[in-house]
Backbone:
């Protein structure tokens, strides 16, 4: 005589089931579901799935954070570091209307959500209206103890046109360093009856 319980178990074994479905197991010649065993197996699968999704999501977040978030600023954001104040114009640019060279600082807000390598890239757009002197700028970081880290200066060549001066760095991995551009603007230049004013039009920077 064929054992009915054996046939039932055999059918259970041979019947395809969806992934994650618990199989009946033989107990005292009767087929029954071991619910605790089923729950334990499914919990392990769910835990693995959640962990995997967490790793993937974390990877995406890290990948996104490595990109630079560029911030644009008007020239009016700059301030004079000389005794003569910087003149701000209604268009948002700022210039030197004095008779002497002016040093100015253009602050940069650091976006710490994208902070990764400690490097930064950006540019500053200036209008050089002096026929013999140039506009010169550098990118700099002031650390909390007062040490200044700066790139080499870049200068305009010629006059009468807007020039973009591009920068990379300086690299600063500390989270409390303050970034800015430092520029020197030549004085107003008289051409006949016209006074020509050198200005900072705009600037941008992004943390890498």
Residues:
């Amino acid at each position: 005589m064929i054992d009915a319980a054996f046939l039932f178990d055999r059918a259970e074994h041979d019947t395809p089931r969806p992934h994650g479905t618990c199989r009946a197991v033989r107990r005292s010649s009767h087929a029954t579901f071991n619910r605790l065993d089923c729950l334990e197996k499914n919990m392990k699968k769910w835990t693995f799935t959640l962990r995997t999704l967490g790793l993937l999501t974390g990877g995406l977040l890290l990948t996104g954070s490595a990109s630079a978030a560029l911030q644009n600023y008007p020239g009016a954001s700059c301030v004079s570091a000389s005794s003569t104040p910087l003149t701000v114009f209604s268009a948002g640019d700022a210039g030197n209307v004095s008779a002497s060279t002016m040093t100015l600082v253009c602050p940069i807000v650091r976006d710490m959500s994208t902070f990764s390598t400690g490097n930064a890239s950006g540019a500053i757009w200036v209008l050089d209206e002096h026929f013999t002197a140039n506009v010169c700028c550098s990118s700099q970081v002031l650390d909390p103890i007062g040490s200044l880290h700066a790139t080499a200066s870049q200068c305009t060549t010629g006059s009468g046109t807007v020039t973009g001066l591009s920068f990379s760095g300086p690299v600063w991995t500390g989270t409390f360093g303050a970034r800015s551009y430092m520029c020197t603007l030549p004085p107003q230049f008289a051409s006949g009856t016209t006074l020509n004013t050198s200005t900072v039009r705009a600037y941008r920077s992004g943390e890498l």
